[in-house]
Design a protein that fits this description.
Number of helices: 1
Number of domains: 1
Order of helices and strands: EEEEH
Structural class: alpha+beta
């Protein structure tokens, strides 16, 4: 199953971007942090996702969304 972004919440004041995916999981991006700690991944039950392959699939979905809508 290919994940997609269902909703995006750009919180400019806090410097965070929150993306809700089609399987109700959540990706939080903090662009001001270094690349190693910029992304946080949560499942539908709000537990951290530590599996690297799942994290990559979620990050790819967010990057496709950003490319489609022209957000940097």
């Amino acid at each position: 199953m290919i994940l997609g972004v269902r909703g995006a919440n750009y919180q400019i004041q806090q410097g965070m971007n929150e993306y809700t995916l089609t399987d109700n999981s959540t990706v939080t991006e903090t662009p001001s942090l270094p690349a190693s700690s910029r992304w946080k991944y949560w499942d539908a039950r709000q537990r951290r996702i530590l599996d690297k392959t799942t994290q990559k699939a979620m990050k790819d979905a967010v990057n496709r969304h950003k490319k489609k809508w022209g957000y940097k």
